[in-house]
Amino acid sequence: MQQEPLQEQIKDPRSAVQGKIGGQIRMAQLDSQERSTLARHAARPRWHPLEAKAQRERAQQILHLIKEERAQEIVHLIKEALKDGG
C-alpha cells in the first residue's frame, strides 16, 4: 500500500506550514523536561492502546454522569481512577 505524497494529502499547504512553524515555536519555549513529558503523554496510547481505550471509556462514563448530575457516582469513579493510576 503506497502513501500519497504529502502535497496531495494537505488541502491548504499554507496552513500546514503555519502549523509546523507554530509547533516549532512552542517546542522552543518549553524546557527539555516539559518536551519529554509531552512526548511521553503522546506515545502512551500508541504503546498501550488497551489502556488508552479504558481511560477514554472511563472519561466518557464520567462525562455522562456529569451531564446527568450524579455527583456521588462521579466522585466514586474519580477515586477509582486515581487508585488505579489512570
State the end-to-end distance. 36 Å
- The proportion of residues forming helix, as a percent range, comes to over 70%
Which spans have pLDDT < 50 for at least 5 consecutive residues?
none
Could you give the count of β-strands?
A: 0
Please tell me how large the radius of gyration is. 19 Å
Describe the structure.
With 86 residues, the protein is mainly α. The protein has two domains: 13-47, no CATH class; 49-86. Helices cover 81% and strands 0% of the residues. It contains five helices and no strands. It is elongated and about 45 Å long.
Present the secondary structure layout.
Elements: H1 6-9, H2 13-29, H3 32-47, H4 49-67, H5 71-84
Helix pairs in contact: 3-4, 4-5
Which features does this protein show?
5 helices; 86 residues; mainly alpha; elongated
In brief, what are we looking at here?
The protein has helices spanning about 5-10, 15-30, 30-45, 50-65, 70-85. It has about 90 residues and is mostly helical.
